[in-house]
């Protein structure tokens, strides 16, 4: 009886932090499980781990040298934001909204300077609801391509069905979640705003990590960006396309957070 009581108590404790749906009794959540941060109301989807070919594989029609060489990467399971961080979610944690385009709780935060994003992450991590961070570049592409599928964009549809780009916007950001999601249920990974990742910028994948970790150094001067923005033609929104934050002005940059798996 005592052992049964302890087991039930442990299960209850595991379900009291945040709001979780689709969680199995196993140590790892089921693929697609959703967890909502109680502080910011940011929804996270569980991305089950796996291996994939990252970068410009034979299936890619056109790509740049920055997307080469293609290489196998093993990604561990992690939580990733269902949407880009919205202005409403940002203001539940921060004092000031840096956005300069459309204002509104359902619009993504733009002008996401790295220092501000790091401040947001630091504040969230003070609440004891897990370890929040930026996704690594490998995690981002793995999630964008729904586990490594040969999708030209972040999903299986046409670019205007999946993204906000310079062919279907009024030259500004749009509310999150209005386009079709990808195979993992993630919205707007192509277009609307570029998304920051944890990695420093490298001109190619030569020497890149193969275990899905961030490729960083103590002398990082610029950082990788993924996904494209409303100001780009669809070609720049491809699932393997890469830019850096010296090439892209900060007004076109947003953020999607990751949350590490519990130890």
Summarize the structure.
This protein has five helices and twelve strands. With 263 residues, the chain is of the alpha+beta class.
Key features of this structure:
263 residues; six-stranded antiparallel beta sheet
CATH superfamily: paralog of FGE (formylglycine-generating enzyme)
Give the N-to-C terminal Cα separation.
28 Å
Which fold name fills CATH's third level, the topology?
A: paralog of FGE (formylglycine-generating enzyme)
Structural class: alpha+beta
Strand and helix order: HEEEEEEHHEHHEEEEE
Low-confidence stretches: 4-17
SS field, number of helical segments:
5
Order of strands across the main sheet:
1-2-3-6-12-7
CATH architecture: Alpha-Beta Complex
CATH class: Alpha Beta
Q: Summarize the amount of helix as a percent range.
A: 10-25%
Tally of discrete structural domains: 1
Number of extended strands = 12
* Principal-axes shape call: globular
Task: Report strand %.
Answer: 15-25%
What's the alpha carbon Rg, rounded to whole Å? Answer: 18 Å
Question: How many strands, which pairing sense, and closed or not: the largest β-sheet?
Answer: 6 strands, antiparallel
What does the average pLDDT come to?
Answer: 91
Would you spell out the secondary-structure blueprint of this structure?
Elements: H1 2-14, E1 19-21, E2 34-36, E3 43-47, E4 50-54, E5 71-75, E6 78-81, H2 87-90, H3 114-125, E7 132-133, H4 137-144, H5 159-162, E8 194-200, E9 223-226, E10 242-244, E11 253-254, E12 258-259
Parallel strand pairs: 8-11
Antiparallel strand pairs: 1-2, 2-3, 3-6, 4-5, 6-12, 7-12, 8-9, 9-10
């Amino acid at each position: 009886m005592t052992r049964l009581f302890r087991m039930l108590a442990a299960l209850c404790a595991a379900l009291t932090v945040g709001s979780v749906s689709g969680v199995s009794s196993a140590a790892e959540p089921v693929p697609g499980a959703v967890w909502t941060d109680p502080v910011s109301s940011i929804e996270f989807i569980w991305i089950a781990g796996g291996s994939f070919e990252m970068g410009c594989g034979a299936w890619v029609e056109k790509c740049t040298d920055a997307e080469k060489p293609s290489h196998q990467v093993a990604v561990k399971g992690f939580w990733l934001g269902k949407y880009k961080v919205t202005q409403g979610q940002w203001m539940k944690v921060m004092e000031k909204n840096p956005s300069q385009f459309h204002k509104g709780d359902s619009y993504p935060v733009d002008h996401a300077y790295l220092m501000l994003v790091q401040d947001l992450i630091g504040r969230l991590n003070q609440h004891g609801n897990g370890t929040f961070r930026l996704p690594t570049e490998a995690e981002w592409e793995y999630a964008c391509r729904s586990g490594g599928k040969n999708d030209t964009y972040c999903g299986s549809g046409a670019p205007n069905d999946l993204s906000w780009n310079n062919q279907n916007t009024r030259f500004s950001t749009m509310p999150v979640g209005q386009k079709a999601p990808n195979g993992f249920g993630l919205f707007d990974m192509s277009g609307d705003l570029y998304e920051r990742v944890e990695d420093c910028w490298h001109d190619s994948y030569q020497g890149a990590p193969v275990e899905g970790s961030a490729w960083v150094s103590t002398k990082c001067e610029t950082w990788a960006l993924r996904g494209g923005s409303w100001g780009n033609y669809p070609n720049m929104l491809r699932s393997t396309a890469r830019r850096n934050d010296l090439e892209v002005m900060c007004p076109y940059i947003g953020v999607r957070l990751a949350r590490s798996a519990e130890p």
